[in-house]
Amino acid sequence: MANLVVDIGNTLVKIALFEGDELQRVEQYADPAEEEIDTLLAGYNIAKAIISSVRKEKATWLLKLQDRFDTINFNSTVATSINNHYKTPATLGPDRLAAVIGANRLYPGTNNMVISGGTTITYDYVDAEANYFGGSISPGLNMRYKALNYYTGGLPLLQADAGFDRSSGDDTASAITSGVQNGIKYELTGFIESYTNKYRECNIILSGGDSIFFDTLLKNSIFAPYIKIEPYLVLKGLNAAIQA
After folding, report:
1. pLDDT, tens only, 75-129
2. Greatest distance between any 2 Cα atoms in the chain
3. Annotated binding site
4. Where is the active site (predicted)?
5. Which of 47, 86, 203, 204 has the greatest number of CB atoms lying within 10 Å of its CB?
6. C-alpha distances out from residue 178 to 124, 156, 220, Å
7. Annotated binding site for ATP
8. What is the mean pLDDT of residues 195-219?
9. What is the pTM of this model?
């Protein structure tokens, strides 16, 4: 028996299959076709299904999926494994909530700082007693590159460069790359230092599509030995929620 987990983000749809806590398969789509979903689910006997979405509209494929299975729509009332102290739980992004649930499931009884890199960069903390109070949101890697191009008259649109390791640029392109990527690096290290100074013995968990890139930015930092990479943390958190 398998658990079906659907995470609908701002840009991608991720669909995963779990047996217990073990991730068996995951696929991501811009907008899945019904045939693609049928192929993914072939051979699996679905016991439970959970859907998390940041989009207001429901696509046809999703409506049909809900007709096929008895699904749970993930929200703050489903998150019973943590103590949620967020003042406005209805406005808390489901991806942020699922990520701290996943962190608490994977590393119970410890302090966990979750940094998730995607459309935005989010920083969230759940303590050893599973208390969650909130965190921070800032623009993501690609959003920063796009903003520099969109809101200026002459700056080009560039892509992230994982091999860039200079402290400054000597032309416009390298100056943009330095500003965006070093800016994120200093932001990451600043947040990590703030949390680890306040909360000792704190795991640093990188998640999301840019988790590997962030790990590269932090490879020479003093925090590198304490970093754990969990690119599917949100999916694992949703799977944990359905089992609570």
Report:
1. 999 888 999 999 999 899 999 999 999 999 999 999 999 999 998 999 999 999 9
2. 57
3. 7-14, 86, 93-96, 119, 172
4. 95
5. 204
6. 26, 14, 16
7. 7-14, 119
8. 92
9. 0.91
124: annotated active-site residue: no
- The Cα–Cα gap between 200 and 206 comes to 18
Query: Computed from CA positions of residues 90, 93, 95, 101, in that sequence, does the dihedral angle turn out positive or negative?
Result: negative
Is 244 a residue whose pLDDT tops 80? no
Residue list, annotated binding site for substrate: 86, 93-96, 172
**What is the set of domains in the chain, with CATH numbers?**
1-73 (3.30.420.40), 105-234 (3.30.420.40)
Identify the active-site residue in 95, 124, 127, 210.
95
Looking at every residue in the chain, the average pLDDT score rounds to: 94
**Alpha-carbon distances, residue 16 vs 68, 91, 122, 198 (angstroms):** 16, 25, 22, 35
State residue 224's pLDDT score.
87
pLDDT value at residue 11: 81
Strand partners, 137: 122
User: In 3-state terms, what secondary structure has residue 145?
Assistant: helix
Q: Which residue's entry shows tokens 């100074």? A: 197
Round to the nearest angstrom and report the end-to-end CA distance of the chain.
Answer: 17
Q: What angle do CA 124, 157, 147 make, to 5 degrees?
A: 45
Helix/strand/coil for 5: strand
Tokens 């290290």: give the residue. 189
Supply the pLDDT for residue 54: 85
